[in-house]
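Changelog-adjacent note: as of this version, every example in the card shows the full chain rather than a window. The one below runs 221 residues end to end.
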Amino acid sequence: MNFDIHKSWKSYLKEEFKKDYFLELTEFVQSEYKQHTCFPPENQIFNAFNYCAFEDVKVVIIGQDPYHGEGQANGLCFSVHDGINHPPSLKNIFKEIESDLGEPYPESGNLMRWANQGVLLLNATLTVRAHEAGSHQKNGWEVFTDAIIKLLSAEKENIVFLLWGGFAKKKIKLIDVKKHCVLTSGHPSPLSANRGYWFGNKNFSETNKYLTKNKIKSIVW
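Full-length structure tokens:
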């Protein structure tokens, strides 16, 4: 596994990388990438960290695992490469931004522009086998990404955590809600959104209100 992770994270994670579970996870991922087609490409597994330095984190969005279709996953949750059709959840995210903030629906589904502003786009599981959703879950990634959430909660303050759907909402137990802002909503997937659990959550304007109140530069969504 390519450990080319941004230097700002390395000092915080060097002990995590030495733990038994992470060494086993590394073996598992290397074996999977050798034997199967997996996503994202190996050099993009840690993109969430590489495009959002530790000191820059001001918003955390938690996804479940990467897109498993050809050419979609780019290491940032909910994000796809330029030129790739927007998956249904991403479409609903952009529609909510349209109605919440009056921003036009964007052409590109690549959320690198958010990451560069301090939005950590963190999937709980960072890899997946092609066309097999959830295939790399429960092999250690969740232990690692939970450690990231706890680290950010402990070391920083005034982060906005966006927890969408039942899976993400469980992560609230890892966050010090006295130091940070937690905004929850149904998941942006069509199943949840069409039942009325997503649209109208105003999470994007609420995020910016909180950041501005705490004298932190808001996000251009």
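Structural remarks: The two ends are 32 Å apart (CA to CA).
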